[in-house]
Amino acid sequence: MIVRLSLRTANRLYDGPHQHIIRLMIPKKQLLILFVCLTLCGLAACEPLAPEQTPQVIVVTGETPVSAGPPTATAPLGGTVPVAEGTTPVEGPTGVSGVVNTPIPSPSPTPVATAVPTATPFVCNETAGQVLELSLSSAVVGRDVPFRMYLPPCFYSTFRRYPYVILLHGTSYDEAMWQDLGAVDIMDEGVTSSALPPMVLVMPDGGLLSETNDQPDGQSYEAIILDELIPRIEADFCLWGNREGRAIGGISRGGFWAFSIALRHPELFSAVGGHSPHFELDNASPDTNPMDLVGRVSLTKFPLRIYMDNGANDYVGENALRLSEILRENGIQHQYLINPTGDHTEDYWAAHIAEYLSFYGQPWPQDVEALPSCLEPSPE
CB of 139 within 8 A of CB of 340? Predict the structure, then answer.
């Protein structure tokens, strides 16, 4: 660092209270000479006005950067070639020493860029989806099983594979339960406003079989869902047919079945939800009861997103809390919400339908063009 003192400042220092010390060290006439010499030496030692060196940015492209070296002078066309001092000029073709007449090439025509066509983004002008009332011929129960499907707006126009969630009803209800609670209207509004991703809702009727605790192999509500319903809808509709594109959930008794099926087959579903789920400690065999399954299954290879909720006044809350504790004890991440108001009623479920649908759709794309193509098989 260089300190510059003006002559006035030097005189002040000299005439200050310590002038006797300075006079002892340096004669007064020599002080000014010393000050000037020090200033000149500082100027010679550095260049305060020289610009700081600009840092270099190296872009690594997978190859070792190679220095281009110092720039070299380029001879102007038709001009004089610079000759290094002490060297003999070279006789050019014209006979003039040091002058080379280089013909100037004709300018090449500027290539015209070819426009690359881009895909036109899909725009859906529909504001409402459609509900299909269907049925399948079930070999498990020996009769037709009705079910409803909600297809989001422009489902048939996109040629995309849509994710879907299977929604199971509670005791004494049927395939209309979720629609009656407002799920279809919430989907239409959510998809149109981009609050929910475009997804399909599948709402089957459980019938008496869904109320039966004793479930022999091949004759269970699970068998209808896995062996008959899923193959049917994935064959008839363009759906995202692997675990990443499937979820399952249910209300009350439907929550019991959603957890039982998902915990037994986590390789088939990516998420499971239970809304006021009706769990009992001993109402089913350990092989199908979620209260037993949750402590025995391994979700390491196929982790599930898990969601449960109930109102603070709901009688199912005690066992739902116990199941949540078992999940926590086994280190399984999940969401369990106890809402401050509400009990085991339609009013409670209708008030939270939007939250349920948001949970199921959370990982799925909002942009329909990001979904897998119908022209290709479902992703593995």
Answer: no
Is the pTM value of this prediction over 0.85? no
Query: Domain range for residue 14?
Result: 7-44
Asked whether 226 and 261 are in contact (CB, 8 A), the reply is yes
**pLDDT tens digit sequence for 9-49:** 444 443 444 443 333 334 444 544 444 444 444 444 434 44
How many residues does this entry show for the chain? 380
- What's 114-174 look like in SS3? CCCCCCCCCCCCCCCCEEEEEEEEECCCCEEEEEEEEECCCCCCCCECECEEEEECCCCCC
| Contact residues for 208 (Cβ-Cβ < 8 A; gap 6+) | none
Whether 197 is in a domain gets the answer yes
Tell me how crowded residue 344 is: count the other CB atoms within 10 A of its CB: 18
Q: What is the pLDDT of residues 186-237, one digit of tens each?
A: 999 999 999 999 999 999 999 999 998 767 677 899 999 999 999 999 999 9
Measure the N-to-C terminal CA separation of the chain; round to a whole number of Å. Answer: 68
- Give the β-pairing of 143-151 and 130-138: antiparallel
- What is the residue-wise DSSP string for 234-266? HHHS-B--SGGGEEEEEETHHHHHHHHHHHH-T
The answer to the question of residue 39 being in a domain is: yes
User: For 19, left (φ over 0), alpha (ψ -120 to 50), or beta?
Assistant: alpha
The DSSP secondary structure of 343-359, one letter per residue, reads -SSHHHHHHHHHHHHHH
Phi, psi of 90 (to 5 degrees): -95, 135
Cα 50 to Cα 38, 46, 53, 54, 375, distances in angstroms: 20, 9, 9, 12, 65
State which amino acid sits at residue 36: V
Sign of CA dihedral 155, 161, 163, 164: positive
291: helix, strand or coil:
helix
* Overall number of domains in the chain: 2
Separation of alpha carbons 261 and 272, rounded Å: 9
Q: Do the domain assignments include residue 213? A: yes
